[in-house]
Amino acid sequence: MTTDPSQVQLTADGRLKHFLTTEGLSRELLTEILDTADSFISTQERDVKKVPLLRGKTVVNLFFENSTRTRSTFELAAKRLSADILNLDIAKSATAKGETLMDTLWNLEAMYSDMFVVRHADSGAAHFIAEHVTPNVAIINAGDGRHAHPTQAMLDMLTIRRHQGSIEGKIVAIVGDILHSRVARSQIHALRTLGAAEVRVIGPGTLLPRDIEALGCKAYYRMEDGLKDCDVIIMLRLQKERMQNALLPSEGEFFKLYGLTEEKLTYAKPDAIVMHPGPINRGVEIESNVADGPQSVILNQVSYGIAVRMAVMAMAMSGQQQERNELAEQNSEQSDVHNNEPGQEEA
Amino acid sequence: MRYLHIENARLIDPSQNLDQVTDVYVAEGRIHAIGHKPATGGIEHSIDASGLLLVPGLIDLGAHLAEPGFTHKGSIASETRAACASGFTHVCALPDTKPVADSPAVIQLIQEKAAKAGFAKVLPLGALTQGLAGEQLASMFSLSEAGCVALSNARAPFKDSYVLRRVMEYAATYDIPVFLNPDDAALSDGGCMHEGPTATRLGLTGIPQTAETIALAQMLLLVEQTGVRAHISQISCARSVRMLAQAREQGIRVSADTPLANLIYTDEAVTGYNSQFNVQPPLRSESDRQALLAAVNAGELAISSNHRPHEVAAKKAPFADAEPGMSIFDGFLPLALRLVERGELELSALIRATSTLPAAVLGQNQSLSESNWFNAALIDPAAEQSFRRSTLLSKGRNSPVAGKTLKGAVNAVFIDGRKVFG
Amino acid sequence: MHLPDIEQTCTELGQRLAAYLQQNNIEQPLLVGIRTGGVWIAERLQQQLQTEDGVSTLDISFYRDDFTRHGLHPQVKGSELPDSIEDRHIILIDDVVMSGRTIRAAMNELFDYGRPASISLVCLLDIGRRELPIQPDLCGVTLALEEGQLVKLSGPTPLQLSLA
């Protein structure tokens, strides 16, 4: 029986051993990720940016979907933890069948890999791998379909915490294509767990998924209403395909309604920060004046990305390691029992 | 004459409004007497059926038997045997085999395999369109002549409403019954589960209820226009139940069924990406489930198995990539009885929905009454069954009951008076 | 087992450190405490010596050699060092020196911040059981504990020693 994804990623004593989703993780654990990431930020400001924590470990970047950006930040994070990293870009067609996907993963596991960073077009792919394929390899979800992108969400949380002091009590609006956004889903869960006062999603009806409010956010169709009193504005990237799928008429109309301009920014609190997971479509989601303006923290997000990924990788590897050690201990205890002479009574 | 004597069984037959503890005497394949011993002849064999239910054999209005073409998933022999384990005497085989059941030769092959296996009788459903492609009419008259009880396009879409209209008109000409699965392919495109809060949370593409109801509306209007004898297969939505009731009120002759899975599970079962629950039609909301249960209890809706066996690999994939379907024959009866035990389904409604109504759809007489063929199942409702992957009768490894212990087991299945199972 | 008086040990250690600095011509030492106990001792010594830079802290969580055995410490707080430690004379301070592994990790970390002119090691207690060729330059008290016994410092106010 498949279990709750949030539980699959935890050890028996509640520590991270995979990182699949922000949903269902405790406030303490999310805060621990942010605290650890904070510590890594200080190492990233040195000349020597590497720490020896994961020396000798092998991390495989398994990207079933292209994303040079995300892959590079994971690669850099792994290298700065002194792990060996292997990059594999696997076209989805080659692994259309579940069987082939599993063969690929088992082969990599047989090469003594310690961690897979997985990007896949199917929602639940990372969870599937963690539960059914290679449970003894730490799995980091680098984006699965529309489901989750937990490291991106955590770097956004870190950005909010560093620039607004805390997440507790803040009003956060997420704007744009919520329907296809794994980032938005991961953000909503993390924001709610970390105590945001209100999470809002803003977009046209075609880009807001049905029953989105069941996730604990409030849906708005107009920027003027949705941005009112906001502390944080998160703009999402708009993919060009949306125009072909009859979800939107044109980029121009989208920008007119939802593009973040200096004028629309005034609806929010004067000290509101503006975020974007990148890469930005200037003039589609956001105008250049705002993207490069004083309230934008978009570039900071990028630099925190490495630290957050280092934190998550270190924590998941740590939990996975603990579980392996316990398993090895149990096995050795069992073999001790087997070594007992026949007829020898146990106390 | 020598009789098979079934003693002290609780005989439930909704077609006659019967629920009583009695004796049944069978000879030469037919029921000779109920209640009293016939005047002449002796007892050849007696079965003490105290505490057991004797019900008319279950008739499945739609199962995927995987043969021909997918014998790594199941065979006619393995799947009809698994059907017997839940009390089925007849199984309608959906035409989406390889090759598609769109020619008399394939129908003949299926019938031969079924006869050789000797378990539940297979009632082939021929294809409505060639290759199920939804474009050109299949040789519908020839298929009917070859022994198809009805014709269906499974869940394969029709190219457009023009083709659907012509399919119905042609079938109506020869009074061939058609089984139709309402599904608007454009609205369900890419979807793998019910569109609702769970799909949104899991980031899976949803199939809206309107994918079913819009297609159903179109079908009902064309059924009215063409006068075809139509059965709507595998509905999943509350709204469909209401639309069917309204259609019947307006005098449209139409029956319908729902898969058992849709009476048991809801879309929340998908939480955790359990690919076992990737099924079509999708598992819907709790209010849909309740409406379907109410319709079954009211005698408006039949229950089909929608049985679909798969090998392990077909389900070992991220949710949307897994093949849809559930191998439900082994667990069908205990799962249905659990609904009865919970008070969600009346026992007589269950028998009516799985035997009486399907028999009416197919124009068969499945009643347990004197001089009728003895097609029946003897059920021990209290017996516990432990299902293990290795002992499942279906070849499919995608059974929802694997690893579970459930109450309710079939003691014996009789087809035309012959014991074929138990 | 009789445990030494901390206040007194610290005061003596401070006096010996002042003499050590003079003897080695170290005018601007950088006091670096190892989290958590080492930082408390370093702060105590800083008050006494009134060095210019205050106390820097070193969190060796990312440098431990027992990650594969014990994993990551759940409360990593990070190191706080000045912008440059290049050519500085570092006084590395810890509460208890035992195997020497913590000191090795601390020195590895320091070198990732720059190339110091020198590193001297100051410890409140030395309980032996060394596993690496590392010895403190100054040590408050040397204790001979029984097998399996450990000593624990709690603080920061008051600083207290206990046996575990």
UniProtKB/TrEMBL annotation, chain C:
Signal sequence segment: none
Keyword list, A-Z: Glycosyltransferase, Transferase
Tagged with keyword Cytoplasm: no
Domain named Phosphoribosyltransferase: residues: 15-135
Matches recorded under Gene3D superfamilies: 3.40.50.2020
Any one Pfam family match given in the protein's UniProt record, by short name: Pribosyltran
Record-linked CDD domains: PRTases_typeI (cd06223)
Enzyme Commission (EC) number: 2.4.2.9
Any GO MF annotation of the entry: uracil phosphoribosyltransferase activity
Annotated protein name in UniProt: Bifunctional pyr operon transcriptional regulator/uracil phosphoribosyltransferase PyrR
Organism: Thalassolituus pacificus
GN (gene name): pyrR
